[in-house]
Amino acid sequence: MLVESPDPLTTTEIARRLNLHQSSISRILTTLAQYGYVRRPSRGRFAPDFGLLSLAASTIPKFSLVTRPRAAMEQIAELCPGFSVTLGALWKGRMIYFLRTATGAPTVDFVTSDFPVHLSAPGLRLLVDLPREEALAILRGSRERFGWRGEDVVPSSEEEALDFATAQVAHDVLILPGWSRRGDVGAAIPVQSPDEGQQPLALSLTGTAKPGVDQDTLRLWLHDGRRLLESALRTP
């Protein structure tokens, strides 16, 4: 709650949202402040503190989706020069990325995104496979949180955007040319995780459209990349 709030919150506001007694919230926040997870930027108000960053940094290496596929992701980047390669999932209505890399660039671990889901090729590809009402609810939540923007080709409603994305899927790959920015292209394919109950994953390529790299090439790269990734994810 504190992380998602644009402003520091009072104990009264937190207690009301959680339907808990204010004294209980006050004791919890006092303990969290002692350990450096929250701070008091002003009297009676609380906000996240640096302890959360430290906790997140120490936790990331424990996720196999960050450690196992790293070499495979870097190999995929070599096969797809000029494109950014990401492995991500939808989590609580937004995209999170376990790995992001590109040829000649360092691999980045675990990136959260404040990017609207309707502009995200992997986000839309994952939505296509969800029940329609669930997918539309995620798009509506993204609109409320991040707004609704994009190039002229982007439909103005959640229903139209989902229908358009569904129609663009061919051979399991969604390709969106000039969607979030003119001259760019995004493409994504779902990836099967070996862990039961794991969030659905998507492998994506994004970058400037290039001569000689047509949609068939993007599909071929993503299918080859998916095979590499799924093999890496099955390896202990």
TrEMBL record:
Residues 1-50 form the HTH iclR-type domain. One of its GO terms (biological process) is negative regulation of DNA-templated transcription. It comes from the Bacteria. Keywords: Transcription, Transcription regulation. One of its GO terms (molecular function) is DNA-binding transcription factor activity. Signal peptide: none annotated. PROSITE patterns: HTH_ICLR. It holds the Pfam family HTH_IclR. The keyword Kinase does not apply. This is Helix-turn-helix domain-containing protein.
